[in-house]
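User: I've been trying to design a sequence by hand for this structure and keep getting stuck. Would you show me what you'd pick, starting by listing the structure so we're on the same page?

Assistant: Good idea, let's start from the same input. This is the structure you sent:
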């Protein structure tokens, strides 16, 4: 049985630098905790950034840091950052509003402020912001390992599904715009008018298509991305873990490990009357089929970890199964 730090070394073996780890799971199962543990181990090997996309900001609470607007070094080789969606959303929505006003002159009747507001609250807009953060993280050349602590599963799935969806839409929009441009070209030419060489909308669409293609390829690349699904030995988290494995398989991302966290010692589980249910759910979690993924157990700590140092203790409660 491989235990403690060795268990992490074994799962993280052969992972090249410039790798992004994403922890996913139901609320409260230990995503933030596992992100911290992974970051601690990875920081022994290279420059590591622990990035929290979770708007609940639990990471900062965990580490006893009141507010982080920039990256902070919490120990040698380990930086953390908590993303704040609001200021980013404001910036991106005004960028889009300005672009829309240029492309759709009919929108002139709306004030820029109204347009910014409409975009800011449009469905899917927040996911788009997360996507931009993700894109920036993948582009970081100064960091060896990035661990992303995510918001609840549903939002995470939507974010990771977007590049594929956007590519599909952009392909159609690109075709449509190309037809318009070529028609415009023919008409202008036949009327002897000057023809614009480059269509700004087409360039923009081309640029977006390229960006999402790169992002999607990075997500699917096993050398660049590993998903860690976190669960506890309870029915709903295990169900969600199973669904999550299916989802990531479907988009082609590599689930490297399923982490089964907060496993109670047998005597405690018995006392609480949940021994049978824990066993059953452990088995269920162990039987989740995921292409060559590893399964890690983390036992329940008698005291809730409240700092980086205390979280470290959980490394010694970890085992690799199989
Ligand atoms: N193995 C463990 N033993 C004891 N306590 C644990 C263990 N793992 C996590 N915890 C505690 O359980 C609580 C939830 O963990 P954590 O915040 O990591 O979960 P999460 O999935 O990130 O939650 P959220 O969905 O709210 O972000 C925390 O108080 C954490 O310290
Ligand atoms: Mg969390």
């Amino acid at each position: 049985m491989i235990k403690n730090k060795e268990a992490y070394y074994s799962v993280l073996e052969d992972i090249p630098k410039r790798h992004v780890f994403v922890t996913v799971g139901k609320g409260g199962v230990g995503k933030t905790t596992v992100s911290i543990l992974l970051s601690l181990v990875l920081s022994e090997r290279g420059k590591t950034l622990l990035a929290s996309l979770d708007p609940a900001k639990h990471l900062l609470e965990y580490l006893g840091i009141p507010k982080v607007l920039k990256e902070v070094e919490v120990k040698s080789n380990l930086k953390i950052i908590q993303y704040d969606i609001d200021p980013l959303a404001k910036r991106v929505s005004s960028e889009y509003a300005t672009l829309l006003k240029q492309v759709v002159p009919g929108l002139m009747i709306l004030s820029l402020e109204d347009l910014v507001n409409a975009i800011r609250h449009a469905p899917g807009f927040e996911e788009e912001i997360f996507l931009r953060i993700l894109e920036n993280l993948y582009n970081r050349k100064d960091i060896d390992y990035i661990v992303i602590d995510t918001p609840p599963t549903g939002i995470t799935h939507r974010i990771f599904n977007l590049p594929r969806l956007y590519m599909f839409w952009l392909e159609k929009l690109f075709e449509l715009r190309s037809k318009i441009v070529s028609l415009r070209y023919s008409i202008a030419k036949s009327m002897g008018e000057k023809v614009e060489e480059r269509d700004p909308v087409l360039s923009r669409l081309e640029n977006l298509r390229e960006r999402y293609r790169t992002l999607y390829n990075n997500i699917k690349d096993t050398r660049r991305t590993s998903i860690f699904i976190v669960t506890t030995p309870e029915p709903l988290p295990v169900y969600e873990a199973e669904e999550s494995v299916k989802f990531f398989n479907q988009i082609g991302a590599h689930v490297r490990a399923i982490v089964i966290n907060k496993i109670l010692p047998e005597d405690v589980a018995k006392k609480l009357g949940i021994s049978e249910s824990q066993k059953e759910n452990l088995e269920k979690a162990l039987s989740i089929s995921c292409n060559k993924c590893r399964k890690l157990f983390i036992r329940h700590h008698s005291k809730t970890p409240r700092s980086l140092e205390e979280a470290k203790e959980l490394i010694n409660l970890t085992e690799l199964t199989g």
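That's my pick for every position. To get oriented when you compare it with your attempt: The mean pLDDT is 91. Residues 2-88+123-165+222-262+289-303+311-321 form a domain with the Rossmann fold fold (CATH 3.40.50.300).
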